[in-house]
Amino acid sequence: MEFADVAAVKVVSTSAVFLMMTIVLLAVSRRISTSILVFGLQSAIITAQVAGTAYLERSAEAWVVAGLIFVVKVLGIPYAFFWLVAKLKSRRDVQAATTPAQSVFIVVVMIFVSYAAVRSYAFGIRVPEDALAASVALILTGAFLMVSRGKALMQMLGLLVLENGIFLAALTTTFGMPLIIEMGILFDVLIGLLLMGIFAFRIRDTFEHLDVSRLRRLRG
Amino acid sequence: MVLLWPLVVPLLGSVVMLGCRDPRLAKRVALAFCAAEAAAIGILVWRVHESGALEGQYLRADGLTCFFLVNIAFIMVLALVYATGYLQHMGAGRFTSPRWFYALVNLFLFTMVGVCLSANLGVLWIMMEATTLASALLVGFYNTEGAVEAGWKYLVVCTVGIAFALFGTIVFYLAAVKAGMSHTSALDWLALFAAVSQKQFDPNLVRLAFVFVLVGYGTKIGFVPMHSWLPDAHAEAPTPVSAMLSAILLNCAMYALLRYDILVSRAIGAEFPGTLLVFFGLVSIVVAGLLILVQRDLKRMLAYSSVEHMGIIAIGMGLGGALGFLGALLHTFNHSIAKSLLFFGAGNVRHNFGTLRMDRITGMGRSAPLTAAALAVGALAIVGMPPFSLFVSEFAILSEAFSHSRYMVGGVFLLVLSIVFGGFAYHLFRMTCGEPHKGLPKPQFTRTEYAVMFIAGFLLLFFGIRIPEAFSLLLREAVAVLQ
Fold this sequence. Notes:
The complex is a heterodimer. Chain A is mostly helical. Chain A has one domain (3-212). Chain A is built from seven helices and no strands. Chain B contains 19 helices and two strands. Chain B has helices spanning 5-18, 23-51, 63-86, 98-117, 121-139, 145-178, 189-198, 203-221, 229-236, 239-268, 271-293, 298-319, 321-353, 364-367, 369-382, 389-403, 407-432, 447-465, 469-482; strands spanning 54-55, 60-61. By secondary structure, chain B is mostly helical. In chain B, helix 1 runs antiparallel to helix 4, helix 10 runs antiparallel to helix 13 and helix 13 (321-353) packs across helix 19. In chain B, a hairpin with a 4-residue loop joins strand 1 and strand 2. Chain B is globular and about 75 Å long. Chain B has a domain at 270-483. The A-B interface holds A 120-121, 124-125, 139, 143, 146, 152, 155, 159, 162-163, 166, 169-170, 173-174, 177-178, 180-181, 184-185, 187-188, 191-192, 195-196, 198-199, 202-203, 206-207, 212, 215, 217-218, 220 and B 120, 122-123, 125-126, 129-130, 132-133, 136-137, 140, 143-146, 148-153, 155-156, 159-160, 163, 166-167, 170, 173-174, 177-178, 183-184, 187, 202, 204-205, 208, 231-232, 235-236, 291, 294-295, 300.
């Protein structure tokens, strides 16, 4: 086997472990900037996995997807987030409802749950159990970040983590959806973030804070 | 090309509208694009009726598409004509100028027509997500505290919900690929439609996919417990937008779910999706029915009523059978018209009384008799009173339930209908009767606003008495796709 083949196989088979590590890092990070960096790292791992798959499957389409993800999720979105943080001039902590220790405990439980959930399916459809469990864990973590972090920016980040999980699920089970659909989804995600950014500015201007857990005028 | 026009017109419209700085010009251009879009939809529907389903690579149209497109066309015309009068009452701001309003509305229409026309489950998801994006700014249009909060909530809740639908789409794609379909055709609806009855789909995967799709698109439909965005968004949006959200957006989401329902029913039998739909429908009508009683805000009450009616439609779809499908489809149309009429009435109330708090409004019957009459007609129609068309569709769904001895479903349904009747009657009586407040300005509404409400009321009555031949043909062609 060529060196490149070995490297690609290793990247694809070990990325799940690294993704689980980013999940724990997200749980402990107290600052928005740290969370953004961890998200960038997570996207970089996924990019590596897509590139590895592309190399092994000899698929040109997958190379395009890898390039897109690298440009959008590793460079573009983190950069835009840092810009937003600077522009919004809000306090830098994530306003977590749980302590770091509690958060770690919760995400570890989520990882266990993910393994339990994919167990029966992974065998039936013949995909690596670790990768599928990592994708479910990412989805759960994204949802967890959205409900436990008060900052509007962290909710956006939680959504992105959730989206990463869904993308990973598609990648591991079917080597991704057709390219045009993949691009459409990415476009929607980008526009969604843009709109949430607009709303973040509006929330700050109307309420003079960015803590969306304190938005509770509309009830019942 | 026929398939493309209904998409091109509103997209072009949204771009052109941004250039119309003069409010008067904006109004005329908006109406022109509205007429062009109605014509484009009309031509498409005619072509499908003449030569059967139209197929393209990413777009297609069959009987079901046409039914929902006609629904869109009706509400679009009513809402836009109403908006031309309504916008005159609205204060000017940086992003609250008419041109932004019309541009966003056109974009919103583009995405909803896209949902109905998409031939590919991936495109369907993309368009469905785009409906959220296009309408989020419309929900937050007034830029008040409430509007910003509602807009943010709408964006976040619906995006997360729709993400689950994406997961469901992927699982369904996986099931199709595992069943031996090629990667390119495994999202194509027509190819899937042919394959589900011939190839062996893994039932576990199909069930998993349907659950996720139901939760995902169910968030947009407003099924309880995923409905939390709905009352806020409906109450805070400008009135024509509330009408469009309630009367077409929810239907479009239902349409997306139906496309899956058809496939899943063929792959693993209709019992599993049917049971889930009836279950979510029942939960939605019971919770929404009880919440209608305790509402203080008129538009929030109307929003909960939308949740209730989406539940009724889900029950009809879940029960299936000729009458169930027929009743459910007819109900989507009837509910759209009645709910638009009620929202238009609510818009007038807001301008006249400066509030939507129902406990602060009295004597509407004397101070604004035409608005009161419109609300009364709409309310009588929405609770399903006989001469109006909602009675027909609800009766069809009920008779489907009882003819298959689903007494529990029928019983709960009837109980909720009577609760809702009580709620609407109580709130409406308090608002219309009694002495009017002193010192309120005379209501100044344009003729177009009244004309639109009159047309909507007339349609409700007319469809209740007899369904025109052309419309019943449209309905039969749509039901044929579902069966």
